[in-house]
Amino acid sequence: MKIKPLSLFILCLGMAPVLASAQTGTVKTNKEKSDDDPTKVTTKVGVAWSDNYDMNDSNVAFSGSLALDEARKINLKVNSDATEWRVGGSWLFPVGIVNFNFGKNDYPNGASQTNYSVGTFIPLSYFGIEPAGFQIFPMAGYTYNTGDHIGCDKDERSACSQPGFTGSPSPENGFHSMETSGSSGYLGAFILKPLTADLRLLSFMGMSYGSKNDDGDNYKGYFGGIGLGYSFDKHNSVSGFTYIQDNNTYLEDAEKRFQLSYKYQF
Q1: How far is Cα 217 from Cα 206, in angstroms, rounded to an integer?
Q2: Residue-wise burial string across 80-93, b where 16 or more C-beta atoms lie within 10 A, e elsewhere
Q3: Are 226 and 239 in contact (CB under 8 A)?
Q4: What is the per-residue pLDDT across 75-88, written as a single tens digit (0 to 9) for each?
Q5: Residue 86: helix, strand or coil by DSSP?
Q6: Quick one: pLDDT at residue 20?
Q7: Can you tell me the mean pLDDT for 44-51?
Q8: DSSP secondary structure letter of residue 235
Q9: Which tens digits make up the pLDDT trace of 148-167?
């Protein structure tokens, strides 16, 4: 039996009341949470710089969150040339946080993607589960995408349609911008481990699965990363990550990048 991504996400959200009834931990206030806790609701601004391992795809992004109260906030992120952006909101519940986003991404190979998503983080510490001090946040979500990518036009006269083709993805060889749309769900986890009062280990991983593309293949992807976060005081913090992401629709090869960021919390 196949489970559609949307059904899978609804199933995960539907389990929240059941899990809540099994609570053995305590709910942390926003002030008690780490600066990198994905369930923290606060007003902050930040800037991040990232690049790939070849150091030829630098990107600067600005972000901000406006806390409306102890449970709700508005989120915004945009890069320096406004070709990639995201806007949305978050709503904190005792059992976890729900995030809603609308945004656009441009990939190095010329593909672009507009997405509408809803996702959640659930802290296992809420249920008294924090093995060896590791704070684990299972995450799940659903995304609907529209966009375009460079693909072969499948015309039997095109060079790219010939068996054994190894040429470049150019218009002369039959490659053109093609529209695509679909939906996908993801499952994963974000992990936070305090090393000292101010230093923490950060990591995340996940996999996604979705609807079929023009070739009849289901959308598949994965992502993961590891890094460190450090707080200078209650206002200023920094973090550094290295991560990898790949999918069979918008990327030809796995994208490997690193990121350095600074945040100021009001």
Answers
A1: 20
A2: eeeebebebbbebe
A3: no
A4: 999 999 888 999 99
A5: strand
A6: 42
A7: 98
A8: S
A9: 767 777 777 787 878 878 77
CB-count burial class (<10 Å; 0-12, 13-18, 19+) for 3: exposed
Is 143 in contact with 117 (CB distance < 8 Å)?
yes
Q: What is the pLDDT of residues 219-234, one digit of tens each?
A: 899 999 999 999 999 9
Q: Average pLDDT in the 52-70 region?
A: 95
pLDDT by residue (tens digit) across 114-144?
999 999 999 999 999 999 999 999 999 999 9
CB atoms within 10 A of CB 11: 12
C-beta separation of 250 from 113 below 8 A: yes
At 264, list the tokens. 């100021």
**CA 18 centroid distance within chain:** 26
pLDDT for 77: 97
Say if residue 229 is exposed, middle or buried (CB neighbours under 10 Å; 0-12, 13-18, 19+). Answer: buried
Select from 230, 223, 218, 219 the least CA-distant residue to 262.
230
Measured distance CA(260)–CA(224) in Å, rounded: 16
What is the C-alpha separation between 244 and 224, in angstroms, rounded?
A: 6
187 closest CA partner among 146, 249, 142, 144: 142
CA-based max dimension of the chain: 66
Verdict on whether the full-model pTM lies above 0.85: no
Nearest Cα residue to 188 out of 238, 119, 130 = 119
